[in-house]
Amino acid sequence: MLNEGEHQQQDFKFRVDDARKIARTLVAFANTDGGRLLIGVKDNGKVVGVNAEEDFYVAEAAARVHSKPEIIFQTRLWDYEGKTVIEFYVPPSNCRPHMAMDEDGKWQAYIRQNDRNILAQSVILKVWKLGFQRKPETWQYSQAEQLLFRYLKENSSISLSKFQKIGRIRRDRAENSLARLVSWGILEMQHHDGVLAFLPAGEEPFSADPIRFEKPV
Q1: How many angstroms separate the CA atoms of 101 and 49, rounded?
Q2: Of 119, 145, 177, which residue is a domain's last?
Q3: Residues 55, 61, 63, 68, Cα dihedral to 10°
Q4: How far is Cα of residue 12 from the mean position of the Cα atoms in its chain?
Q5: φ, ψ for residue 150 (rounded to 5)?
Q6: Mind listing the pLDDT tens digit for each residue in 8-42?
Q7: Do 163 and 99 fall into the same domain?
Q8: Among 18, 37, 92, 213, which one is most buried in terms of CB atoms within 10 A?
Q9: What is the pLDDT of residue 213?
Q10: Which alpha helices (DSSP H) does 75-170 contain, by range?
């Protein structure tokens, strides 16, 4: 685990002096792909160890008190060359969004991107709220959504701001459209260089000029 370094599903913390920072990592894991937090390890993978009992309760408070809803986790103590490392494993959650309190006292949702915890954009929160939904057998797409499909015929993905521009629509309307299409399984979300991108889900191509975009149900 030490040799892997920090990545999408692993983070190091060498101390637990701020339960809110611990909570941010646990929340990001729960909201994304799950992950493992090793406490008592520096960013470079050097083990410094912790006070097992005292630091465990601080980290536990991060999951139970500084996160809402509270984080489900498993723990394990490791003895590495006479030093104690606490492992917190957080599975991906079905109760998203989990939130942690920021420095201003606001509850914020975080996701994990590579080795960083970043704020979840509002369109992601809308996708979580909708969950997976069965697409209606027929649906009249808006002009903006038809332009979106045409764009994706020639491009691999699209950003929220690009969709706003080509569709000439407000941000909230663009977010609602993208969130609905993701919840129907027509689009999927990916992060590219810090930008949230939307791309077709699966291999099925989009119609060039859809009035009703028909997709097998």
Answers
A1: 26
A2: 119
A3: -160
A4: 18
A5: -60, -40
A6: 999 999 888 788 889 999 999 999 999 999 999 99
A7: no
A8: 37
A9: 44
A10: 122-130, 143-154, 160-167
Q: What is the pLDDT of residues 167-213, one digit of tens each?
A: 999 999 999 999 999 999 999 999 877 789 999 997 554 554 444 44
Matching residue, tokens 């989990």: 98
96 within 8 A of 128, measured Cβ to Cβ? yes
Whether 110 and 166 map to the same domain: the answer is no
CB 72 within 8 A of CB 90: yes
Inter-CA distances, 126 with 78, 129, 175, Å: 39, 5, 8
195 neighbors 206 (Cβ within 8 angstroms): no
Tell me which residue range forms the domain holding 103: 10-119
pLDDT, tens digit, for every residue of 79-119? 999 999 999 999 999 999 999 988 888 999 999 999 999 99
Task: Based on the fold, state whether residues 38 and 98 are members of the same structural domain.
Answer: yes
Both 82 and 161 in a single domain?
no
The structural domain count of the chain equals 2
Pair 156, 113 in one domain: no
- Per the omega criterion (within 30 degrees of 0), is the bond before 97 cis? yes
pLDDT at position 203: 54
Rounded to whole angstroms, the maximal C-alpha distance in the chain is 67
User: CATH number of the domain that 135 lies in?
Assistant: 1.10.10.10
Rounded to whole angstroms, the Cα distance separating 7 from 44 reads 12
214 in any annotated domain: no
Element at 158 (helix H, strand E): strand 158-159
